[in-house]
Write a structure and sequence with these properties.
The chain is an alpha+beta fold and about 375 residues long. It folds into two domains: about 250 residues, ARM repeat domains (Serine Threonine Protein Phosphatase 5, Tetratricopeptide repeat, Alpha Horseshoe); about 110 residues, Immunoglobulin-like (Sandwich), CATH 2.60.40.10. It is built from 16 helices and eight strands. Strands 2-8-7-4-5 form a five-stranded mixed β-sheet, with no helix packed on it. A hairpin with a 2-residue loop joins strand 7 and strand 8. Helix 4 runs parallel beside helix 6 and helix 9 packs parallel to helix 12. The longest helix is centred in the first third of the chain and has 15 residues. The chain starts with 9 loop residues before the first helix and ends with a strand. The model has no long low-confidence stretch (mean pLDDT about 95). This is DNA alkylation repair protein.
Length: about 375
């Protein structure tokens, strides 16, 4: 897979230079390209974007209105463009928008109306989710006042920007501390977007709520219960995705919102197929569940692998498994395989590890196995 950083390539820099040369008098294209290309190859994605933004900022006119006119003039005429759409001789789009939105947030905080209007145009060609955030941080009320009208915009990317740009904990983006502490100002905007015709927008709403759940789980659980009333299939999917972390954690109010009551079961297992598991291989375990309840039960099963840490303690990691419905007295047997393979986010340590189950948020069973690491 091609590294993300290569989306901001020398060819993209030359494309931007070509467009700037059409709209800037006495533009020194050779120097512009050299100022960027001399450093570009050694940098990762975010730093590449910042470099292109810094150099572009230096070559634009000092007057804000004039520089914004140039930035708007270099945009691709087509909108609703996918992230991977390459900039071309018609204009900048896709990954080429990322440094241009940075230019706006670098220089435009003194003029919210013009800056956010330009970011609205830029987001139609990729996204401006990272660069509306400095405006929200500086004057949240003013920025939200402008963005709130975008929930009814005809452009999918603009509507998504309302949700994605205001996420309190957006990955790669600056944290919006006021919205982390109090997300209530954006809740009416999320509600306005929850039944958007585009899944791209609804998915953003779900991810936004998942952000909020990290700091306000009871708030999101309450929203889930409210939004699920009379919900169609699309909204049900949104709410379930929004609550994915809370469901994994077994948050009681969230489980109740989904009708997942404390399980009434008898469990056998988990029974692990082998007591010793070699690094790079997989192990299997099996369980048998018998319903002891008097009514049909809807169950969500996850399993936890308790991995050994460097200090010798065990830390559980939750993995999604399955959903099932049990009638009174019914027994279901299940088997699962889990591979112990190299991943960048975990370091394995040999010794005792364990497996357990989480059913409707409640933990059941606990069985140990030995992880055998290769000898050096």
């Amino acid at each position: 897979m091609e590294p993300f950083k290569n989306n901001l390539s020398p060819d993209l820099v030359k494309c931007l230079a070509s467009h700037l040369s059409r709209h800037l008098d006495r533009f020194d294209r050779v120097s512009f390209e050299a100022d960027i290309l001399s450093e570009l190859e050694s940098l990762e994605l975010k730093r590449r974007a910042a470099l292109v933004a810094e150099v572009t900022d230096r070559y634009l006119p000092g007057d804000l209105g004039e520089r914004f006119a140039v930035l708007e003039a270099v945009l691709h005429p087509e909108t609703e463009i996918a992230f991977d759409r390459a900039s071309d001789d018609r204009g900048m789009c896709g990954w080429g928008i990322l440094p241009l939105t940075m230019v706006v947030s670098r220089c435009g905080l003194a003029d919210f109306d013009s800056s956010l209007a330009l970011l609205k145009e830029m987001t139609k060609r990729m996204t401006a989710e990272f660069d509306v955030r400095p405006f929200l941080a500086k004057d949240q009320e003013r920025a939200l006042g402008i963005m709130s009208s975008w929930v009814a915009d005809e452009n999918t990317h603009v509507r998504r920007l309302v949700s994605e740009g205001t996420r309190p904990r957006l990955p790669w983006g600056m944290r919006l501390k006021r919205l982390v502490e109090d997300p209530s100002p954006v809740l009416p905007l999320l509600e306005a977007l929850r039944d958007d015709p585009e899944e791209y927008v609804r998915r953003s709403v779900a991810n936004h709520l998942n952000d909020i759940a990290k700091d306000h789980p009871d708030l999101v659980a309450g929203l889930a219960a409210s939004w699920l009333k009379g919900a169609d299939r699309n909204r049900q999917k949104l709410v379930r995705h929004a609550c994915r972390s809370l469901i994994k954690q077994g948050h009681p109010a969230t489980l109740e919102a989904f009708g997942l009551n404390p399980p009434e079961i008898r469990l056998e297992g988990p029974v692990i197929g082998t007591e010793k598991v070699r690094y790079g291989e997989q192990f299997d375990f099996r369980v048998a569940l018998t319903s002891t309840g008097k009514a049909v039960q809807e169950l969500v099963l996850d399993y936890l692998v308790h991995f050994k840490k460097a200090n010798g303690t065990l830390a559980p990691k939750v993995f999604k498994w399955t959903k099932l419905s049990l009638v009174p007295g019914e027994t279901v047997s299940l088997t699962r395989n889990h591979a112990i393979r190299p991943i960048t986010t975990r370091t394995y340590y040999g010794g005792t590890q364990a497996v357990s189950l989480r059913i409707n948020g409640k933990d059941f069973g606990y069985s140990e196995f030995e992880l055998v690491m290769p000898e050096n």
